[in-house]
Design a protein that fits this description.
With 308 residues, the chain is of the alpha/beta class. It folds into 2 domains: 221 residues, Rossmann fold (3-Layer(aba) Sandwich); 80 residues, Alpha-Beta Plaits. It is 34% helix and 27% strand. It is built from 11 helices and 14 strands. A 6-stranded mixed sheet has the order 6-7-8-3-9-10, sandwiched between helices. Helix 3 packs parallel to helix 5. The chain is elongated. Bound molecules: adenosine-5'-triphosphate and magnesium ion.
Length: 308
């Protein structure tokens, strides 16, 4: 299937001379949820804004649904819903009118059934007649999403959708994105929160200083880079790891009260059984055993450090 969003050799240098994007290549498949993960200033908003046709590329091309976002701006833009990083809403307008108006801007005919569907999907139906200024910050974010969905886009861009949103609402928002996927919407979101990418993304793109460092399926990324460790607590601390065990690459914890063994959880033979046998043969008694799999956060921190 052709990609719904295709970014080829995209460069962006701002007027100031700052190179915000360097030769970015990225294909996004219809129906997926892609998280764009990167620290402040990495180029996330620049990339999203360029795909949405708001920022002009310096070179390279972007197509959405096969339409070039520069040459064929209107056709491309019609397929796109954008929730910007900054909250921009008319304080005195009601929720429902805000969303209606947004649909009108795209020249779409009135469709009250669609507006109702979107407001219900975002749990805003009961608030439809409230003025924006009466809503909490989290509710306002939902209104922004409702606005972005008002013209039935196929691709939704969420720039930091849960910045400043509490844990509860953040989880609601993840549910919203998941529901949207079920209705066929492709979602690209930027985030600083690794747990967010971990919770909802199908694929993760890591961006740093305008470079895409990697784009990979989340589960594969965690498999590939996530090392697994086993920690064996000993009944008596040891000064040295016995030779037969040290050979296996097992290390002593700092205080000698435990043994630590890193292994590849995908390997046919992890060596754990043999290690436990050796332990017994050496007369070492264990009191406890725990395993640890590195999470996305550790992977990400490692990546950023290696590329600093
Ligand atoms: N209009 C502009 N003119 C010059 N430089 C800009 C402009 N907009 C952004 N930049 C610079 O480009 C870089 C990338 O900015 P961008 O907003 O894309 O980062 P970001 O990844 O979205 O960061 P954040 O996580 O803080 O939102 C930053 O160094 C920023 O200062
Ligand atoms: Mg940003």
């Amino acid at each position: 299937m052709p990609a719904i969003v295709s970014v080829k050799d995209l460069n962006k240098t701002y007027k100031s001379g700052f190179e915000a994007l360097r030769k970015v290549n990225l294909d996004i498949e219809e129906g997926e949820i892609l998280a764009l993960l990167g620290p402040n200033g990495a180029g996330k908003t620049t990339l999203i804004s360029t795909i949405c046709g708001i920022v002009m590329p310096s070179s390279g091309t972007v197509t959405v649904g096969g339409h070039d976002v520069v040459r064929d701006f209107r056709a491309a833009r019609e397929l796109i819903g954008l929730v910007p990083q900054e909250l921009t809403l008319e304080a005195f307008e009601t929720v429902i009118n805000t969303v209606r108006f947004s649909r009108g801007l795209f020249g779409k005919p009135k469709d009250e059934a669609h507006i109702e569907k979107v407001l219900r999907q975002l749990s805003l139906w009961d608030k439809r007649d409230s003025k924006i200024m009466m809503l909490s910050g989290g509710m306002k974010r939902r209104v922004l999403i409702a606005k972005a969905l008002s013209h039935e886009p196929r691709v939704l861009f969420l720039d930091e959708p849960t910045a400043g949103v509490d844990v509860e609402l953040r989880k609601d928002m993840w549910q919203v994105v998941d529901d949207l996927r079920a209705s066929g919407v492709t979602t690209i979101l930027t985030t600083h929160y690794i747990e967010e990418a971990e919770a909802i993304a199908d694929r993760i793109a890591v961006i740093l200083k305008g470079d895409i460092l990697l784009v990979e399926r989340k589960d594969e990324l965690m498999e590939r880079m996530g090392k697994k460790q086993i920690r064996i607590e000993l009944s008596h601390p040891i000064k040295e790891v016995p030779e037969s065990i040290a050979q296996r690459g097992v290390q002593r914890s700092e205080d000698g009260s435990a043994l630590i063994y890193s292994y590849d959880s995908r390997a046919e033979r992890t060596g754990i059984t043999a290690l436990l046998n050796d332990l017994q043969a050496e007369g070492l008694q264990m009191t406890d055993l725990s395993t640890h799999q590195s999470n996305l956060e550790e992977i990400f921190v490692g990546l950023v450090k290696d590329n600093a």
